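agent> call fold_tool(seq_1)
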Amino acid sequence: FQDDGRYNREAPLTLQREAAHYFGYVYFRQVKDSSMRRGYFQKSLVLVSRLPYVNLFQSLLQLIAPEYFDKLEPCLEAVCNEIDQWPPPVPGQTLNLPVMGVVIQVRIPSRVDKPGSSPVKQCNQENLLPAPLVLPSVHELDLFRCFQPVLIHIQMLWELMLLGEPMVVMAPSPTVSSEMVLALTSCLAPLRYCCDFRPYFTIHDSEFKEYTTRTQAPPNIVVGVTNPFFIKTLQHWPHILRVGELRMSGELPKQVKVKKLAKLKTLDTKPGIYTSYKTFLHKDKTLIKRLLKGIQRKRPSEVQSALLRRHLLELTQSFIIPLEHYMASLMPLQRAITPWKNPPQIRPFCQEDFMRSLEHAGPQLTCLLKGDWLGLYR
C-alpha cells in the first residue's frame, strides 16, 4: 500500500492497482456428503487483491486451496507468513515467489514493454531449488479458448467494448462467466477498459436492483451471470451474449449466431449474441480463416491467442493513432512556452475538424479493414 504512485506510473495501464474495487480470486470446492443438508460439502477459499493478476493468483490458489481444505488454519498461517516475505511487484522485474515448497517465477510487465512482443527473458543467476514453476504471464488469459465460439463476431465485440456498451454474459458456470468478461474487457489492450465490469454477478449483489430495473437504461457495464433467473430480469439489456461450456482449444467450435433480441425466449435461450447492433467495420475474414485453419492443424492455443491478441491490438492502435495525431496538433509549440509569458492555451477539440483530418490521416493508413470508420468515431 505504501507506494502506489510509483507502481502505477511504471505499470501498463491495464495492470494498474484498482483504486475503487478489489478483485476476488476464488477456488471453490464441492464434495458429495450425505450428512450435509444439501447433500454436498461446499467451501471457497478467496484471495483478495487490488491487482488484476488473474493468472498468478489463480495459480497460487490451485496450490494453496487443496492443502488448506486438508489441513485448515495452520496451512493458511504458514502461507501468509511466506507471502509476507515476497518482494513487492516492480514493473519490468522477474520475481521468484516461494510458497509451499514451490517457487513461482513470474515477470511483472512494464509500461515500456512493446505491446504485442514477447516478454524479455531475464537470466537469473541464483540457483533456484526446486525448479521454479514459470508462469508465462501474470495476467493474460487463454484468449483464443474464451473467444472460440464467437470468433466470427470478434469485430462486433471489440466495437461494443470500445463504445462502452452495456452487456450481459450468460454462462453455464462462474469460471466461464468470469473468463469471458475478462477476455472482453482485455480486448482493448493497450487501452484500459474504463467502464465497470463484474466477472461474476449474483442476485445477492448490492447493485442487483439497479441493474434489473426497467425504468432506466442499463449502466455501462459488462456483467457475467450464471443464474437462469437473469434471462428474465435482464431481457431489456441491449446486448446479451449467451455462451455454453468453453471447450479445449483443439476442437472446431460451433460459431454462435447473432439473433434479434425479440427472439429471447425466457428459458430455452440457445448460445448466441442477442443484439440489434450493426457493426461499422467489416469482418476480417482472413484472420478468421487463419484461426480456423489453426484448429485443424492443431496449432497450440498460445499461438492462436497471440494471433488474436495481435489483431485486436492493431485494431485498437489504428483507431487511436488518428486521435493522437489530432490531439498533438492542438498542443502549443515548444517555442510558445517561456517563463516570461502566460502559459499557452491548448486549442479546443473540434469534432468536425477531427473528422476532416481523417480523410488524409485516418485508420485506412494502418488498418486493412474496410467499413464506416467515420460512423464508429462519431
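agent> call fold_tool(seq_2)
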Amino acid sequence: MSVKAFKLVSAVEREMLMGDKNYINIECIECCGKNLYIGTNDCFIYHFMLDEKVSTAGKISFAATKQLHKYLGLKKPVSELKAASALTRLLVLCDNTITLVNMINLEPVPTGARIKGAVTFTLNENPVSGDPFCVEVCIISVKRRTIQMFMVFEDRVQIVKEVFTPEQPCAVAVDGYYLCLALTTQYIILNYNTGVSQDLFPYCSDEKRPIVKRIGRQEFLLAGPGGLGMFATVDGISQRAPVHWSENVIGAALCFPYVVALDNEFITVHSMLDQQQKQTLPFKEGHILQDFEGKVIVATNKGVYILVPLPLEKQIQDLLASHRVEEALVLAKGARRNIPKEKFQVMYKRILQQAGFIQFAQLQFLEAKELFR
C-alpha cells in the first residue's frame, strides 16, 4: 500500500541548460548547499544557484539561477563532479583526469594540480587524516586491478596508498580505512590500511550495473542478486533486512527512513524500518539518482528534478487516517532520530493516543489498552 513520502519537483528545465541545442546531454550532477553543478557531454560545467520557495499553501518549488558555464577545452564528456566545500574546490573528472577548479569561478587552480589515470572516483566522508583542509579521494585507476588513495589540498594532490585488488574493480565507496568494492564477479570489503579483505556476495557486473553506496558510518548499500538492495557493514554482516528492487536498478539514494531507487521507468521508495515498498513515481529516461546532504536529486539527459520529502508527521497522520496503525507506529518510532527529543515525546504520545482510539473503534480492546497505557 502506498504512502505519499516524496513529491517530484522540477529544478532545472532543459531550456535553461541547452536552449535549442538538442545534442547536449547531462552526464553528472553535484549539489553543495544551494550550489548545483552540472557536467555535460560536450565538456561544459554549468553552475546554478537553487532557491527553495514555499507558497502560502505550503507547496515547495525551486528557482534555479544560472551563475556561469565553463568549457573545459576537451572533446570529452564531464563524467563526474564532487564538491570539496572546505577547500572551495570542485573535483572534475574528464578524460581520465581529475582537475581541481574553483567552486565560484570554475577556473582551474593556478598550480595545475591534477590526478591522472582515474576511471572513477569518490570522496571519503569519514576521513582518517583529521586535516580539515584536505579531502581524501579514492580512485579506480586505469592501471588494471588498482585502487589509489590521494590527499587533495587546495592547490596540490598527494598519493597516500596504492592497493591491488583480486579482480578488476568497477565501483567503490569509502568509509575510513574501509573500501566497499564491486569487482567483476563479487562485492568485497577491503581495509586499505591492513590489506585484509572480506568477501560479501557474488555479483555479475557484466549483466548489471553494480551499486555501492555509503549510507552511514561503516555501512553500505549494494545492488545484490535477484533485484535485492542489500545492506552490509564493514564487518561483512547485514544488520537490516534487504529491500526488494526491480532487476534493473540504475541508482540508489538514502533519505532516512527511506531508500530510493531508480530504474528505466520508475522511482521506487522503500522503508528501511519495515522493508515495504511505500511509493512508486513514474519517471522515464532517468539515468542519475543521488542524495546530497539529505537532498535527493534525479536527472534525465535533459532536466534535473528534486524529490521533496513530505514532513514525517504528515505521513504518519495519513497512515492513521487510513487505519494503518502498525505502519504509523513503525514510522513514528523511526522518526525519533529526525525530531528533537521534547517535540518527539509530545508527538509520539499523541500518535499512540490516536492509534489507541482507532484500535478501540475496531473492537481490538487489548491492543487499544496497551496503546492507551
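agent> summarizing second result for user.
The chain has five helices and 28 strands. The helical segments are 14-18, 312-321, 325-334, 341-361, 365-372.
agent> awaiting next instruction.
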